[in-house]
Amino acid sequence: MSLIEPILPSLRAGISQSIRHVARPQSIPPSPLRGALKRKITPLPVSTSTNLQRRSLSHSSRLQYASDPAKTSSPSSSSASPPEPEEPTGIRAAIAKAVSKVLPDSTKEQYYSYQKSEELYKECRLQGEYYPGEPVAGKAKFWYEECGMAPCLRNWSSISNLHVWLIMVRFRNMTPRSRAKMWQQAFINHYFFDLEAILTDRHKITQKSKRQKMLRELYEHFQYTILSYDEAFIRGDAWLATAIWQNVFLMREDMDFRKLAMVVSYVRRILSGLEKLDEETILTAQVYFGNPMEEASTVDKFTDEPSAQAAAPSKKKK
User: Low complexity compositional bias: what residue ranges (predicted)?
Assistant: First the structure.
């Protein structure tokens, strides 16, 4: 049994928050697998990244209106129905359909997990997405502008590590264990394939020995980060804040603790939301991370209450 599995049910009693950061339409449109074993993820161009952010905002606004009965009572909105997904056509689709009839179910899921875990990973990488020499956009503004982090590979990997860990926690709660390991391994593989592609294409590190050395260092940091987050998750929010301060913000002495509290609240809300999602939603990559800035009102509420109580005059005991 995983160290984290017994902790997940306790979130029901400790956190009664609504699912605000997950279970929304995915930000990345699904794309067919190009080749049986694709080893690299093509970096998203700036225009594509901007369009995906706009698309995700429009999807979430439509979902909000759909959950509000006052806004869905008009005949025009009730009669409209989403279009049916089109069946893929062409020689590749025909070959895939023919091969799927003879493959065992375990092999089919290996290919399926490889494709869907890539879509889950792409949602994780968007959180800290950057391009050298270009302004940041979308949800990455919180990390690079609000928190004052420099848009570089080191900070991007730290932000991605945090979101990759969130998905891994949910994978560990899948049954059977062999299935959870398969999905988790495919998910981590996409992360490190993408890291190598970024080093080669974006940062022009073409020397293999240097690239492999950097990948080993990033892998060691990834392992340490996952272990520290696991321990912090068990021990409580103070430990979680410390782990995030160490691994994401690199123990900055000028850290804005209000921003740190917002990230802790954001992580706890995501974990609570992921626990409430069924496996079908997770395995079809219908997971959407929000923005830590949305936690500002929650953090301000709980930080203002103690100060208000301290400022209030205490009653004298008779």
Answer: 52-81, 306-318
Joined tokens for residue 46 = 């700036």
What value does the mean pLDDT take over residues 220-246?
Answer: 94
Q: Which residues, 6+ apart, have CB-to-CB distance to 78 below 8 Å?
A: 72
**Number of domains present in the structure of the chain:** 1
d(CA 125, CA 58): 20
pLDDT for the residue numbered 4: 41
pTM of the model: 0.66
28 within 8 A of 48, measured Cβ to Cβ: no
| Domain boundaries, position 183 | 18-30+52-64+103-296
Under DSSP, the state recorded for 312 is S
The string of pLDDT tens digits covering residues 14-34 is: 444 434 445 444 444 443 333
Q: Looking at the domain assignment, is residue 89 inside a domain?
A: no
Please give the DSSP secondary-structure letter assigned to residue 84: P
Average pLDDT estimate for 122-148: 90
Residue 93 lies inside a defined structural domain of this protein: no
**Residue 102's pLDDT band (cuts 50, 70, 90):** low
- Per the omega criterion (within 30 degrees of 0), is the bond before 176 cis? yes
Q: How far apart are CA 43 and CA 198, in angstroms?
A: 7
* Residue 91: C-alpha distances to residues 199, 235, 313 (Å): 34, 54, 78
What's the CA gap between 306 and 313, in Å, rounded?
13
Q: Residue 293 in contact with residue 142, Cβ under 8 Å?
A: yes
C-alpha to C-alpha distance for 131 and 312, rounded to whole angstroms: 50
Residue 140 lies in a domain: yes
107 part of a folded domain: yes
Q: CB 47: neighbour CB atoms within 10 A?
A: 8
- Give the H or E element holding residue 244: helix 237-247
